[in-house]
């Protein structure tokens, strides 16, 4: 199969920068949102390469993983321009929009169909609640990689943002959820019962913090668990959550899960 070699990767990176650079905006908040998505993309590229190295992937497989990271959020720019929001529920599924754009612009012309299929699958499934259980092994392998790398950068970014003093009310970057006191009972119940929290059930910034913390139950690769552990993301999130019986229980469950995964990884 015609793999993604160094030249193809370079050409695709150039395409991405040209495309994302065409979405400049005068409104400072809008501009911040666009810049944020570009920097998120680059960080996800670096993270996926870290995972690829840990998984001992070949150069071509690493290039494929990087291309998936490069394009996983390509739909975000058009979404923001058309609808003025990053909320899929209020606008459009940004992952599917991304695939539509990539196909329409024939970005992968000349690249093997099987490789294109893995890219389109991984991009279109990076934001799904879950991956399908029965699926082609390569689709699942790379789909899991982008889901981990994406979450790892959201951990890094959001734990910083939560501590920022000048967060705008209903921050568009933090899913427009209001910073009001309290935590939803349903969110706690879902996490304690091992159910994945749905974004549409979020009522406050505290709920969002818990949702992000609970992603440890949707992480796939050992290296990703190690990074979450090393960076102390869980501790940071819980340090800015109200202490209740529920949050204490959730914290201890999450830490237990993380420690188990990390000790397996270090064996
Ligand atoms: Fe995304």
Keywords:
267 residues; mainly alpha; Hypothetical protein af1432; 12 helices; globular; binds fe (ii) ion
Overview of this structure, please?
The protein has 267 residues and is an all-alpha fold. The protein has two domains: 6-149, Hypothetical protein af1432, CATH 1.10.3210; 177-266, no CATH class. Helix content is 64%, strand content 0%. It has helices at 6-21, 28-54, 59-71, 75-83, 94-104, 113-125, 137-163, 185-192, 205-213, 222-231, 233-239, 245-266. The longest helix has 27 residues, at 28-54. It is globular. Residues 72-73, 94, 126-127 line the site of fe (ii) ion (FE2).
Rg computed from alpha carbons, rounded to a whole number of angstroms: 19 Å
What are the distinct ligands in this entry? Answer: fe (ii) ion
N-to-C span: 36 Å
- Which architecture of the largest domain would the CATH scheme give at its second level? Orthogonal Bundle
Give the rounded overall mean pLDDT.
92
Portion of residues in beta strands equals: under 5%
CATH class identity of the largest domain = Mainly Alpha
Tell me the count of domains: 2
Main β-sheet, in a few words? none
Structure class: mainly alpha
Instruction: Could you tell me the CATH topology label of the largest domain.
Output: Hypothetical protein af1432
Order of SSEs: HHHHHHHHHHHH
Number of strands: 0
- Shape call: globular
Instruction: Count the DSSP helices.
Output: 12
Low-confidence stretches: none
- In helices, the fraction of residues equals 55-70%
Give a brief rundown of this model.
The protein has 267 residues and is an all-alpha fold. The protein contains twelve helices and no strands. The structure holds fe (ii) ion (FE2).
